[in-house]
Records
---
Amino acid sequence: MTTVAVLYGGASAEREVSLNSGKPCAAALYERGYEVRLIDVGRDVGALVQELTPAPDVVFNALHGRFGEDGKVQGMLDLMGIRYTHSGVLASALAMDKAMAKQVFAAAGIPICEGMVVGRETMLSGVDPMPRPYVVKPVAEGSSVGVHIVLEGSNEPAFDAADWRFGEQVMVERFVPGRELTVTVMGERALAVTEIRTKQGFYDYRNKYTAGGSEHILPAPIDEQVYQRCLDLSVKAHQALGCRGVSRADFRYDDTAGGSGELVILEVNTQPGMTELSLVPEQAQHVGIGFGELVEWMVEEAACDG
C-alpha cells in the first residue's frame, strides 16, 4: 500500500487555509486506498524530519505561504529523497517572489502590469511611488495577505506601518480595472477560466475564504478569444517558471467601458488552495475530474529532484 504524508498547517499567515486544504485531501486519499499520515508542520525542522522517518512513499504538500510554498520544504524533501506533489525548489521560489516571477513572465512574452519594489521607508514618506490607483502588496506572500488598493481621491493612508509585517520591501503595481480571472493548469493542460466577483471590495483574504464573500462564474463570461488566451498564457506561465503538477494563474482583464482591453497576469500559485471554497477542485469538476481523482493524480505525478 502506498503511504502518503500530508503536510498541512505550517507557520505562515496562511496556516488556517492550509489546515482546511489538507484535511479533505487526506480524506480523499484514504478513501482511494492510500495509507495516509497527517502532519501538522511547525517551525521545528528536526521534528518534521522525525515525522517523515521512516519515509513515506509520497508527500502531499498542502502547505501554503512561506516555508511550505517557497521552495524551502521542497529542498528538504529533495535532500531526503522523498517524492512530493506540486512544483520543485526553483519554480516554487520564483513563483513566491512576485518581483522575480514578473521578470520571468516578461522574458517569456507574458503581459504584466507595471510595478516596482520599494523600501518600507519610501511608503512611510507619504509620497505616492506611482500615480493612483495602485496596489500595495508583500513581495512574497499568497492568498492576498497584506494586499491593499490605493484609490484616487482616497483619504486613507497608502501604507499602514502598524499592519505591515512583511519585511522591508513593498511591491507596488498599477491597478488594472475590470475582471478577476483565474485558470488551473494540471500538468500541461489548462482546465478552464473562472471569473471571480466579490460581494464587497476586492478579492482579498476575507473574500477568498469566507462563505458568500465571492462568486465564482464558471466558465467566465468573456470573449472566446480572450478565454483561449487566458488558457494559453496560463500554460506558458506554468512552463516559464518550471512548474509541475497543479498550478493556478491569476489575471486581470480590463473590459471596462473605454478601458484598455488589456489582459495581464498577476501571479502563479504553485500550491493553490484545496478547500471547499477553492477554485482548483471546482474547475476540475467542471471538466469531469472529481476531487478524489484530482488528488490521486497529484500523488501519482509527484516527483523528487534529489
---
Amino acid sequence: MQLTAIILTYNEAAHIQACIESLRFADSIIVLDSFSTDDTITLVRTAGAAIYQQKFEDYPQQRNAALSKASDGWVLFVDADERVTAELVAEIREKISRTEFAGFRIPRNNYIFGRLTRGAGWYPDYQTRLLRTGKAHYDPTRKVHEVVILDGDEGTLENPLIHYNYRDGKQFAEKQRRYSAYDARILFTQGVKPKPRNYVLQPLRQFWWRFVTLKGYQDGLHGLRLSLLMGWYEFRKYQQLGKLWRNERGVT
C-alpha cells in the first residue's frame, strides 16, 4: 500500500531535517508549510521532500488540506519535532499491508524539558496519525487539539512516536497560555459561568488528577513541577473565562 508521510511546518528549521530523515521509509514525503520565515523551506527542498505552502487558519483546515494532496493509500502525519523509530516503521508497514481499519492511533514518548515523561498524562498520549485516504478527515469545529473523524474502525499501534515536546519553560508557558485561552472561549460559548469555588477547586482537581491519578509522582520533582504548572493554567483558564463574562456585561 502507498504510504505518504506529511509534516506541517512553520519555522521548523531546528527540527525539519531530522524529521524528514526518520521518514525515508515512506513512499513520498509532503511538507505543508505556513509561510515560514526561517530556513525551513530551503532545508525541505535540500532534503528532497515535496513542498506546498498555505496560509494557516487553524489546525483541522491545514491537516485536511494536506490530506487532499496525498495519493491513494495511507497517510502518516508527523510533527516536525517528532521522530519515527525503526520498530514503529516495521509495525506500520505490517499493519497497512493487511488491515481493514480506517486509521490507527499511535502512542508517544514525550520528552519535556529534555526528560522522558511517563506520568501526569504524557503517556501513552495516543494520537490518531495513521489514516487511510478517503476514510478520514479532521473535525473543522475543533480548532485546537484537532480530532480525526474516521469512516470505519480505529486500531492501536504498540510502538511509540518520539516527541521532543516543550524544550523549556518559556515554550511551555507560551503554548499553555494559548490552550487555556482557547478552552476558556469554548466554555464561554457553551454558556458556562465561573463560580467562586472554581478558582480554587478546579486547579486543585487538575493537580490531583495529574500528580496522583495519572501518576505524575512517578517522575519525581519533574512530575510535581508539571502537575503544579497544569494546575496553574487551569486557574488561568477560569480567570480568562471570568474576564470574558465581565467584558460581555461591560464590566472592566
---
Amino acid sequence: MATLGIDIGGSGVKGAPVDTARGELLAERIRVPTPQPSDVTSVVEAVAEVAGQFDDFDRVGITFPGVVVDGVTRTAANVDKSWLDVDADALFTKAVGGDVEVHVVNDADAAGLAEVTYGAGKGVKGVVLLLTFGTGIGSGLFLDGKLVPNTELGHIEIDGHDAEKRAASSAKEREDLSYEEWAGRLTTYYRKLERLFSPELFVVGGGVSKKADKFLPLVDIETEILPAQLRNAAGIVGAALYASEATD
C-alpha cells in the first residue's frame, strides 16, 4: 500500500499518494482551499476531505506550519491560535478513519526531507539548510542528511525584527519591494545564518522557488544556494516520507 502525503499550506490543503522509494506522486494531487480562519475543526475537516478522495493507503503524513513535538502542535505563528498544544496525530487519525497511522511534521522539515532525499540536497554532506519563503519563513536543518527538527529560523531577530516580518515573500508583496530590494533583505538574513551554521548548501523552497532566477543571482553570500527541485510536491512527498520512516 502507498503512503498518503498531505500538505497544509496558507492557501491550500493538498494531498496525494506517494511512492517513497522514488519520491514521486502516484496520482494527481487533490487540493481544497485552506479554511479561513484556519481553526482546528475547519482544517481537520479539510484534511479529511482530501484524504477521502484516495483509498489503498496504510499511513498518512501531514505537514503543519509550526513546531510539532511527538505529534503535538506547540506553536501557531501563522495559523489560528486554537492549534496551540493540540494532539494533531490523534485528531487527524480519527478524521481519516482511525485505522491508519498518522504522523504530523513541521512543513519546512517535510520539504527539507524531500529535498535531501530526492532533490537539491541529495548526497550533500555536512549542514544543509532549506528555507521556505511564503507567509512566513520556514526552516529545515540537516546534518549529513539527518533532520534536526523544529528549528524555526524564520524567527531569528534581525535589526530588531523577526526575520520573517522583513524577508518572507509576504513582506515583499506587502511592501511592494522589487526583486533587488528583497534580495538585499535576503542577503542580510542569509549572512546571519552563514555565521551561525556554516552550511554547505542553502536550498530555497516554497512557491518562490519557481522564480528563483529573478532573485537568487542578486543574493550576495558565500554559500552555494539552489532552488528546490520538487517545487510544490516537496511538502506532500516529505510528509509521506516522514510517515514511512516513523512507521518503519
---
Amino acid sequence: MTRDDKTVHQSSVTNITFSTDGSRMVTGDIKGICAVWRTHKGMTPVCQYAREGAINQIVFCSLILNASVPNTTDNTNSLFFFGGQSGSVCLADDLKNCSEVCKVPGSVKSILFYEKENSVIIITSHLLLV
C-alpha cells in the first residue's frame, strides 16, 4: 500500500470480515479493492489487492498451509480467500501475497471454509458448487 492515511476504499464497501482471533479485518469494495487491516491499537491498513469486479465474499481459513505463501504458521500471517462479481477466487495474506486459485463461471455468491476437511466451498450465481 502506498498511502499512509487510512483511506483505502474510494467506493462503497461490500464486505467486512474479521479473523477468528480478531487481530485482522479484511474489507472488500464495489470496485475490486480488497484491503487487510490490523485491528489492535486502532485500525491500521496493512496491504491491499486490486481485482476486477466487486469483492463480495471473504472468508478466513486457519488450516491451509501453502508452500507458495511464506510464513503460514506465523500468527501475523492471516490467510483468507476472497472473490466476487468477476468469478475469480484468490488466496491472500497480510504479507502482500495473493494468487488466483480458481476462476468460476458467473459471480461468486458464497465462499465457506470447511475446517474439518481443510477445504473451501464456493457457490456461484450459476448454482455451481466448487
